[in-house]
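Fold this sequence, please.
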Amino acid sequence: MIEEKDTYQTIKAIADSTFTEKKSKFISFAIPVLTQDEVKEQLILYQKKYYDARHVCYAYRLGYVGEDFRANDNGEPSGTAGKPILGQMKSFDVTNILIVVIRYFGGIKLGTGGLISAYREAAKDVLNEAEIITKTIDESFTIVFEYPFLSEIMRIVKDDGPEILEQKYDNDCEITLRIRKLKVQVLKEKLLKVETAHMKE
């Protein structure tokens, strides 16, 4: 049986590193991202900033288990840039991240093996520079109950410590809560034991 996880690793902030291989300069950036739109925005920024570079290669991983990913060689021979960058993300077990590696050609060809090695090293270096953090996978839900049961509900909320995202108090009260995935079921069961309490669809 696979143990269920409710955490994942990502990076705290943008990191960068630079190294030179046979006169080719590799500048790498690791950028925290959450959506494909953010990836696109960041790529436009770096492509504009380094417009004079020979290649702006990248890879990204999104989702709690890195299920959404892409690698791009940007003109380098197929599989020599994006794939080794992506490979380092998997090695470091990080997701919700974009790595951009900019190459300024130094006049000496590196060959297929040399390129793979250089892009792998560029990604590894920048991940070593980055601060890797662990985040929890959270879920949110809304509970509805009658006003007289508010104090009982709030006592459970106080004990279990979920984040309160939204609350409405009327004849019927609604509270939207967020808590770590592995604690969701237990909290829901406690709350549903309160008379009149039910989950909002």
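The mean pLDDT is 90. The first helix runs from residue 36 to 49.
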